[in-house]
Design a protein that fits this description.
3 strands; 2 domains; 16 helices; 58% helix; Citrate Synthase, domain 1; binds oxaloacetate ion; binds acetyl coenzyme *A; transferase; mainly alpha; single chain; 373 residues; Cytochrome p450-Terp, domain 2
């Protein structure tokens, strides 16, 4: 007979990884041993993706080679490109990305190989294509014409330009790039775990990423950032405290708060809060920032909960001009670097992930023919 399960696998160590590490009590996050506070604002998303996928912060030559690979990968295959208009008309953004990445698997030249070199090439292509998929999806549904990605620009700069239709300021690019760095990897979060479970059957990288995208979509995980913005938009600025108290009294969860691992401030929220404030002030209307601050104070006073990465990311993306329903897709643009690195790591030292379950159903049932049931 199996042991009692730990509900939600809380505190269960499900994999070994050299990619990221969290000290939940101290509120610290590390990518391959580098403190997130040292990376944020100093390391680009491209450098971070290289760190995760290739194992080291790149030298100038390595970054040039990886950057060139990303530029080459920044094209869409025929199956994906031809289906975007219909998918954009019929599917919500995260559903659409799940479908489009699946189609991209069929277009991928390395689709039949899980070998280490093929996985690295697929990781770079997926990282390069994800922002383009979001931008092309958005353009198809709005009827906008967007420029092709500029090979001289970073992923962050190209994405903001394609989504907002205007050339972002240098500071906006820096802030968005920092957001991508902050969201890149996070140990055994639900979507990464889903990717690793899929990869551990020796299924391919695109299948694992489809599983991850479907998992990130949920409001208890990456989908929370969109819900944070929808909550802020629905509240009267003068009624923040009362609304939060009413929601809590009704047993509702406040989106963007709480975390399975952090027992103190999420170190990513520290950066996102500052950037939200800066962008809010620069916009001339920082109402959503101040509403967020008030919400943070009330949730802490009432429940002792801290904001997670999704909370201040919402207002940062809002101030950057990103449509609210693309917030979770933006998360996927960044997390693609971590997911793919986890698939590489899983395939490199694989064993099927197949836990046990506790049976709680009926026993000793007596079978009856259908007419006697
Ligand atoms: C990128 C990310 O995935 S970050 C997380 C994004 N998700 C959210 O922001 C959604 C809101 N937050 C939550 O639902 C949870 O805090 C999670 C899913 C993040 C973590 O869940 P768990 O570790 O399973 O904690 P669980 O949901 O059991 O919460 C523990 C207690 O805190 C309460 N709690 C946790 N989060 C919240 C919240 N946001 N609002 C109100 N109460 C909360 C729960 O109601 C529960 O209370 P109880 O013990 O009285 O029943
Ligand atoms: O780690 C988690 O459970 C959720 C999270 O913060 C992330 O995926 O970034």
């Amino acid at each position: 007979m199996a042991d009692k399960p730990t509900k939600g696998l809380a505190d269960v160590v499900a994999a070994s990884t050299a990619l990221s590490d969290i000290d939940g009590k101290a509120g610290r996050l590390f990518y391959r041993g580098y403190d997130i506070h040292d990376l944020a604002g100093r390391t680009t998303f491209e450098e971070t993706a290289h760190l995760l996928q290739h194992g080291s912060l790149p030298s100038r030559d390595q970054l040039a080679a990886y950057g060139a690979e990303l530029v080459r990968g920044r094209t869409l295959g025929g199956l994906v490109a031809s289906n975007i208009p219909e998918i954009a008309a019929k599917q919500e953004p995260m559903e659409a990305l799940r479908t489009l990445v699946s189609l991209a698997g069929a277009d991928d030249p390395d689709k039949d190989s899980n070998a280490a070199d093929a996985n690295l090439r697929k990781a770079a292509r997926l990282t390069a294509q994800q922002p383009l998929l979001v931008a092309r999806y958005h353009a198809a549904r709005t009827g906008a014409t967007i420029p092709d990605p500029d090979p001289e620009l970073s992923i962050a700069a190209n994405f903001l330009l394609q989504i907002t239709g205007r050339t972002p300021s240098q500071r906006e690019v820096e802030i968005f790039d920092t957001c991508l760095v902050l969201h890149a990897d996070h140990t055994m979060n639900a979507s990464t775990f889903a990717a690793r479970v899929c990869a551990a059957t020796l299924s391919d990288m695109h299948s694992a990423i489809v599983a991850a995208i479907g998992t990130l979509k949920g409001p208890l995980h990456g989908g929370a950032n969109e819900q944070v913005m929808r909550t802020l938009e629905a509240i009267d600025p003068s009624g923040v405290a009362q609304t939060v108290r009413d929601k809590l009294a009704a047993g509702e969860k406040i989106m963007g708060f709480g975390h399975r691992v952090y027992k103190t401030e999420d170190p990513r929220a520290t950066h996102l809060r500052k950037m939200s404030r800066e962008l809010g002030e620069a916009s001339g209307d920082d109402t959503y920032y101040w509403m967020s601050k008030e919400m943070e104070e009330v949730v802490f006073a009432e429940k002792g909960l801290y904001p997670n990465v999704d909370f201040y990311a919402a207002t940062v993306y809002h101030y950057l001009g990103i449509p609210t329903d693309l917030f979770t897709p933006v998360f996927s643009v960044s997390r693609m670097s971590g997911w793919t690195a986890h698939v590489i790591e899983q395939h490199a030292d694989n064993r099927l992930i197949r836990p046990d379950s506790e049976y709680i159903g009926e026993r000793d049932q007596k079978w009856k023919p259908i007419d006697e049931r």
